[in-house]
Every structure is written in C-alpha cells, then in structure tokens.
Amino acid sequence: MPTAFLKHPFMSQHAIDACNDDAMVRAMLAFELALAEVQEASGAVPSGASQQMREQLEGANFNVAEIAQGIASGGNVAIPFVKQSRGLLPSELKRYWHQGATSQDVVDSALMLLLKPRLAALDDLLLRCRSAATALMDVHIDTPMVGRTLMQQALPITFGVKVAHWAVGLEQTRRRLSAVELPVQFGGAVGVHSGWDNLGLEWMDALAERLGLSVPVLPWHTDRYPIHALGTALDAVAGAAEKIALDVSLLTQTEVGEVAEPSAPGMGESSSMPHKRNPVRSALIRGAARQVHGHTSVLICAAAQPLERGLGEWHAEWAPLIESALLVEGALEQVVVLLEGLEVNPSNMWRNLAATGGGIMAEPVARLLAPTLGVDRAKAVSADAAETSRRESRAYFDVLTEVLAKDPDAKGAVDADELRNACDPALYLGSSTAQVTRAKKWLEAQ
C-alpha cells in the first residue's frame, strides 16, 4: 500500500516517526525490562540480573523484519519479539525473561507506552487551539454575520459566538481525553498471574509505577474499557475538529467568502485551475476525522471479547487505535494553523446579511407588528415584504414602509425609528455577546 501517498498525509508526521516499528520494539522492551526489575525486587529474579538484561538488550539491534515475519505464525508481535530478545541473552538469564507474562501483557502495555506521549502532544495542540480561538472571540465578539439553518440564511449571530462554540467543543473533548487512563496490562496466561499467587498483583502495581502508566483494578485482558474509553475520546476530538473544518469550508465558498484559510505558497492550488484557492486544510481535517470515525466503529465492535483472550477482536484493535491517535494529531496540527491564521472578512459578512435586501429581519419585524396586526397577520405582512424585497431587489425597510403606509390598521401605529431598528441585523444578535463572555470564562476556568 502506498502509505506515504494515501495515509500519512492525514497524520502527524512527527507522530508517525514516534510510533514506527522500532518504537514498538522499544516499548515492548521497556515493559519486559521493567517486569524483570520489579520481579528482582521481590526476589523472583536473581540480584543484578535485570541490570544485566538491560545492558545486554538496550543497545541491541533487533531484526525488525524478522519479528514482522514471525507474526504470521504467532498471531502477534510479542511472540517473535520475546523469542528474539531472549536469544540475545546469556543462558543463565534466559529463564527469567518474560517470566509470568503473556503476549497480551506485552502488546497492550507497549501500546499504552506508545500512546502516552501522543496524548500529551494532543493536549498541547488543544491548548494552542483554545488560545487561538479565544483571540478570535475577542476580536469578533460583536462582528455580525448570518446564522444559517438547513444551509439557508436564518437570523444574525456574531462570528465571535460561532468561534466560541468551536472552542467549547474542542475544550470539552480535551478535558475528556485528559481524564482517560492508560493502564498497564499484566495478568499472565489467563489473567490471574498463574503460578505467582498474590505476587502477580504486586508486580502489576509496581510495573505501572515504574512505566508511568495507570494502575488497573484488575488485569483487563478481555475487559476492553480502557480501549473503548480512549478510542471514543479520540473520536470526540476528531468530531470537534471536523465541525470547525466543515464550517470553515462552507464559509470559504466563493459566493460566501466570509473567511479564508491561511495562505501559504502552493497551499490550496488546483492542478488545472490557477484561480482556485481550495480549503485544503479543512479537507485534510475532515479526511482524517472520517477515518477516525471508521476506526472507532472497529474498536466499539471489539469491546466484547470471549472468555480470557480475544479471538480476532483483540487483534483488530491494534492498528485502528494507533492510527486514530496519529490521525487526530494530524488533524489538530491543521486546526491550530487554521485558527491561528484564519482570515476573517467582516465586510463580506455584512454583504451576505444584506443579500436578501434585509428580509433576514422578517422575524423581528413580525414581533414588532404583532401587537398592532395580530400574530398571524404580522407574520404574513413581514413575509410578503421580504419576498417582494428579494424578488425586486429592493431594500426590505423601504418595502415595509410602503406596505404599512397603505395598511389602515398599521398606518401610524409603528414608529419609523423602531421599524428601522427592527431591520438592523446588528441590533438583533440575541445573547451572542453574552455567550462569548460566558464561554471565555468557562475556557479560562481550567
């Protein structure tokens, strides 16, 4: 598969390098060495043996290709890794290598070790997104724009409140992700530390502390809540990022032009149309998010695993879990650039507010007329005036003034200044400004 062409562009390039085959080998090695150390501390391994293992293996050149080939016969990477690493040890130490552990302990714990720095990187990116969004909220707290429902113009909002919703969405997922635990896995062949009695739980706890992972209540060989929690938390981040990308891409349309992605040499160019400036960053974010959503479905479907070892379900988790983290990190790298350099065009926002000739204000006008004309007739008059304004390309206020001047029930009943104010989008922004203020306070609380 041409991964460099089809998969990696959606991922964080730094994260790809940090989660390659060699990194997986090093993570498995870290687990095995830590296991030997905690076992030595309890007397199950001879004094000094764990240090000899470390000296022998930390600088060793593992044959990654050979390990990869061995997966076909063993079904997972731990089996050929343990065999190869044991083969590098002197005879007197071989019996103490991988003692009391099983393949799932090695693989699950190694995956947790690989993912721990990735979650830290995601948190950093989300904090940058929060800062960038807050800056946009400050600048555009009162910038009126069209609020759209079902892809149609609805009523005015501010761009600041739109960004506030983006920011709150991302921050909610950041807090959820930061609460996810990455536990060590250690249970032995069937999850009960066979042959080691209560020492098994002591080793599990000590392993977690030594590796910097969370302590599980019990080994989680077929209790896949940790994977489910992490996978769905990553999916939530992807969804929040995708929301921003979707909104931005819609607002960048030529006929809308309210925002534009940050410019960069060659960014967004077309292979055949020189005039185009495509929202490529939004496309990459959405492409990554869609893949994460698919991976999440795999993880969810693998949550219930049989008896004491998954048969295919466990195996199906590995790639989707790691790829989800790499995809989310790649998406957030794009979101950061997007928010930090987003080009906002308030003049086009005003232009689009006026696209209906002011008919977008039919709802507040109907409210103003209701006490005089009654609710139903006020709605009808307001709607008819909005349609005439649109059809004849005339100002909504002017059409309304003419209609009301001819209406004996309304004539003189509505003050001209009140009517003009009711037709002003900047005076009908609801709680937009208050929402931005409230969101900022919440964002800054943690």
Distance between the termini: 43 Å
Task: Give the SSE order as H and E letters.
Answer: HHHHHHHHEEHHHEHHEHHHHHH
Beta fraction: under 5%
The structural class is mainly alpha
How many helices does DSSP assign? 19
Helix content: 55-70%
State the CATH superfamily name of the largest domain: Fumarase/aspartase (Central domain)
The CATH class name of the largest domain reads Mainly Alpha
Summarize the structure.
The protein has helices spanning 3-6, 13-18, 21-41, 49-57, 64-74, 78-87, 91-94, 103-139, 159-178, 199-211, 225-251, 280-301, 313-341, 346-353, 362-373, 375-392, 396-406, 416-422, 432-445, and strands spanning 144-149, 152-158, 259-260, 343-344. With 446 residues, the protein is mainly alpha-helical.
Structural features, described:
Pfam families: Lyase_1. Belongs to the class-II fumarase/aspartase family. The chain has 446 residues and is mainly alpha-helical. It folds into two domains: 3-141 and 152-350, Up-down Bundle (Fumarase C, Chain A, domain 2); 359-422, Ribonucleotide Reductase Protein R1, domain 1. The protein contains 19 helices and four strands. It has helices spanning 3-6, 13-18, 21-41, 49-57, 64-74, 78-87, 91-94, 103-139, 159-178, 199-211, 225-251, 280-301, 313-341, 346-353, 362-373, 375-392, 396-406, 416-422, 432-445; strands at residues 144-149, 152-158, 259-260, 343-344. The protein has a two-stranded antiparallel ribbon with strand order 1-2. The chain has a two-stranded antiparallel ribbon with strand order 3-4. Strand 1 (144-149) and strand 2 form a beta hairpin. Helix 3 (21-41) crosses helix 8 (103-139), helix 8 runs antiparallel to helix 9 (159-178) and helix 9 (159-178) runs parallel beside helix 19. The longest helix has 37 residues, at 103-139.
